[in-house]
Sequence to fold (230 residues):
Amino acid sequence: MINTSLITSAPNHPSTNQTIIIMKDYQGEQILVVTRQLFDNLSDFQGINTDVERYLPSLLNPENNFFMDRGAAEDDPSHKQLIPYCIFRVKDEQGDRYLHYTRGKSGGESRLHAQVSIGIGGHINPVDQREDHLGMDTYMAGVEREIDEELNITGGHTNKIVALLNDDSNEVGKVHLGVVHIIDLETADVHANEDAIANLALCSLDDLRGPLYDRLETWTRCCVDVIEDL
Fold:
């Protein structure tokens, strides 16, 4: 639900320009975060980093992560929200193809609407907690839940963590830290479960680097640029 409020700089003068502030209501959602300090101590980076073993054990150490109110976290660069970023690939007689879609208006992150993405995933929530509290089992439970919520996949799939992704060049990136997964699908029979995933289709890497490239969101560009090395 979107709540809006109208702010007028000079209420006694109707002709004064008015600014509408739109605030997203996350309805108290709790999401998994780490501190920016932890990320800096591990050695921060810009873009893709494939040294997963250097970062992930510390990020998923229950002593280092915790749940935080999403409304507060979205505007707090002193914390990083851990976000699975799953890239779906089909290998068949047509070659390697990647699932891509356009982010619809009903998506949770309004700052990414209308951009093209190859990443499926979302936040880790308390419902994902397993016996390891906030460790790897909890994280992977959240990944599979997000996949089930967002896609209808026929057949099996493999799931491999291949990189970390950070982009501090924009306001969205400053408060998120991506965990990049490559998901290899048994079949190309995949459908969207949510309106936020529009125009879902498979395409070649050449298409992503060609006619679609200018429409790609920042994280997707980072992945597409180096995807052969992931």
Helices lie at 36-43, 52-59, 70-73, 136-150, 171-174, 205-209, 218-226. The chain has seven helices and 14 strands.
